[in-house]
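quick one before i forget lol
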Amino acid sequence: MEERSTEEMPERLRHLRQRALDEKKANKKYFHKLAQRKPKELDTAVATLHDEVFESTDCLQCANCCKTTSPIFRDKDIERIAAHLRVRPGELVEKYLHLDDEGDYVLNESPCPFLGADNYCSIYDSRPKACREYPHTDRKNFHQILGLTLKNTGVCPAAFEVVKRLREVLPQ
């Protein structure tokens, strides 16, 4: 797979990791206070922001999540993907996955072997649940995934933008 040079990356992606690091301490402090808000209020605000941000976000222009991180593959995901690829689940695991330190199946390598040079996923209709839900900014009980969201701000420009706008909409 051909990697994009830094110059070819969109501006907001090129500097995302540094911006996320610069904001990490403030976001962590903000999330600590945010966890004390009513979950329904938080869910409503985040769902609205998610919709707004994704109106102008084209994941195919980025695919940084697929290039840099691995989703968790649950047994159902492995069975579904194996059926899609017409291989046994054991073959899929042997070829593409390993158990991480927490006992979850994850990809052996990055970028994802199912990601094409055009940023399209070759198993899109069968992709893991974690991929379907990424970056998880439209999920209920958002207060339960604040740590994951903080991590995702360094990977996903949309997650970064949702958090940035959230700090404006629900100031502390």
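fyi The radius of gyration is 17 Å.
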